[in-house]
Amino acid sequence: MSANRVPVTILTGFLGSGKTTMVNHILTSPDHKQRVAVIENEFGEVGIDDALVYNSQEEIFEMNNGCICCTVRGDLIKILHRLAPKKFDTVLVETTGMADPAPVAQTFFVDDFVKEHYRLDALLTVVDAKHVVQHLDEEKPDGVENEAIEQIAFADKVILNKTDLVNEQEKANVIQRIKAINSFANIIEAVMSRVPVAELLNINAFDINRILENEPDFLKDSDAEHQHDPRVSSVGMQVEGELSEDKVNKWLSKLLSEKGTDIFRSKGVLAIKGEDHKFVFQGVHMLMGFGSTAEGRGKPWGKDEKRINRIVFIGRNLDRKQLNEEFQKCVA
Ligand SMILES: Nc1nc2c(ncn2[C@@H]2O[C@H](COP(=O)(O)OP(=O)(O)OP(=O)(O)O)[C@@H](O)[C@H]2O)c(=O)[nH]1
C-alpha cells in the first residue's frame, strides 16, 4: 500500500443543507494551499450544480447517472482511477442529498486500486438546523431507509449549518436530536457552511471500528440495492428562450408557498429577458432566493450560447406534467 495515499472527504447532508456552499467555501478559502479535486453527484436529470460551483483552478468531476449510492461500484471508482495520476492533495466527494453514505464509504474498502491510492479521511455531514427535524421525523414506507438519519449516524463530524435561521431553543433541540442518533460525532455550528478548512480536510477522523460496531456487514462486498422512498423523485426540466422575471417570480413564490412542504429542494439556472447574466434560483422547502453570475459565481451567457433554462425539483408526489406546463408559461 502506498505511503502517500490521498485523503478523501465525503460530504453528505440532506437536500439543501449547504454542501455546495461548503465546497465553494473550501475552494475559495485562502487559509489552505491544497489542490482539491471535487467529485460531484446529482440527484436529477439536469445538471445544475456545475453552474453553482465557483470557477476555480481545481477540477470538478461530475457524476449524473443516478444516485451515487446506487452507482458507487461504477462511476465513482472510474473517476478515482482517472484522478490518481493527477496527484491531488485531497479529494472531496459531494454526494446527493438523497444518498445513503454507507455504500459511498464502502467504495474505499472494496476496490483494490482505490484502497491502494486513497484513504477515507472523514465523512462530514452538513445539517440544516431549520429543516432537519421534519426529515428525521418523516414516516417512511416499510423497508425504506430514512436518509437524513443515516447521514447523521455515519458522520465523523456534523456541521450544524444555517444556525442563523433558528433561535437558541430550536438549536438546542436539534443538537439533542443529533446526539441521540450519533453521540460520537463532533458538532460544529456554522452559517453559510463557513468552518476553518483545517477542521474539514485531512483530519483523520474516519474510524472503521466505530462503523463496524453499527454495521457489522459494512466491509462485505454486497451489491444489495437499498430502497429509496418511491414517493420521492426529481423532476428536471428545460425550456429554451428568455423568461419573464415577473412570471417566474410569481410562479415559484406561489408554488413553494403552497407545495413547499413536499418540495424539499429546487434549483435552477435561468435566462431572464434582457439580461446577459445567468440567474440562479435556489429553494429549500418554502425558502427561496435568487442570485446571478454577476456575483462572481459561474459564467454569464456566452455570446452564441443558447438560452436554455434548467430547473429541478426534488420532493414527494411531484406532478411532472403540471410543473412542466407552468414552467413553459414563464417564457417572455
Ligand atoms: N440562511 C442560510 N442559508 C444558507 C446557509 N447555508 C446555505 N444556505 C442556502 O441554502 C441553499 C442551499 O444550499 P446548497 O449549498 O446549495 O445546499 P446543498 O446541500 O448543496 O443542496 P443539494 O445539492 O440540493 O442537496 C442556498 O440557497 C444557500 O445559499 C446558511 O447558513 N444560512
TrEMBL record:
Pfam families: cobW (PF02492), CobW_C (PF07683). The keyword Manganese does not apply. It catalyses: GTP + H2O = GDP + phosphate + H(+). InterPro entries: CobW-likC_sf, CobW-like_C, CobW/HypB/UreG_nucleotide-bd, P-loop_NTPase, Zinc-reg_GTPase_activator. The keyword Nucleotidyltransferase does not apply. Residues 232-331 form the CobW C-terminal domain. Keywords: Chaperone, Hydrolase, Nucleotide-binding. SUPFAM superfamilies: Hypothetical protein YjiA, C-terminal domain (SSF90002), P-loop containing nucleoside triphosphate hydrolases (SSF52540). PANTHER family: COBW-RELATED, COBW_HYPB_UREG NUCLEOTIDE-BINDING DOMAIN-CONTAINING PROTEIN. Belongs to the SIMIBI class G3E GTPase family. ZNG1 subfamily. This is CobW/HypB/UreG, nucleotide-binding domain-containing protein. It comes from Dunaliella salina (Green alga). The lineage of its organism: Eukaryota, Viridiplantae, Chlorophyta, core chlorophytes, Chlorophyceae.
